[in-house]
User: Fold Lipid-transfer protein DIR1 from Helianthus annuus.
Amino acid sequence: MASKAYFLFAHLIVYLLATKTLITYVNAAGGPCGKTPIQSAALSLSPCLTAGGNAKVKVPPMCCTKVNALINTAPKCLCAVLLSPLAIKAGIKPAIAISIPKRCNIKRRPVGKKCGRYIVP
Assistant:
């Protein structure tokens, strides 16, 4: 199980590096992640990789810390990352990943907010 997570993480890194040269668009004017490219925000959530693909996996404390920080600074960014093709390619399942804030017991999560076709629990 751990080797699969490392394999997915390695693919995520390779994909990020490969697409970085192809993608010049940066949300400079304030996209969902502010001035941070979605790829960078996705990379910051790499500790959540296994928990975002399997609801039975305990969410690592570092994942909870990263998600909480993202919710506090740019809550729309979390949704953008979870629905991004990059996250899907890395094995993230949005229906499962959307539950991470609740699984982390984050009190200030945007309960009831829509994220694509999903609603934050």
Remarks:
- The CA atoms of residues 54 and 112 lie 22 Å apart.
- The two ends are 27 Å apart (CA to CA).
- Confidence is low (pLDDT under 50) at residues 16-29.
- Residues 1-30 form one domain.
